[in-house]
Amino acid sequence: ANKQSSLMSFFKK
Amino acid sequence: MLEAKLNEAALLKKIIDAIKDSVTDVNFECSETGIDVQAVDSSHIALVSLKLGSDGFSDYRCDRNITLGIKVASLVKILRCANDRDALTLMADDNGDQLRLTFEDSKSERVSEFVLKLMTIDQEHLGIPDTKYESDITMPVDAFQKIMRDMFMLSESVKISCDKEGVKFSCKGDVGDGSVLIKPSSSVDDEGSTTIAVETPVSMELNLKYLNNFCKASGLAQNVHLGMSSEVPIMVEYLLPNGYLRFYLAPKIGD
Question: Does the model's ipTM exceed the 0.90 cut?
Answer without folding.
Answer: yes
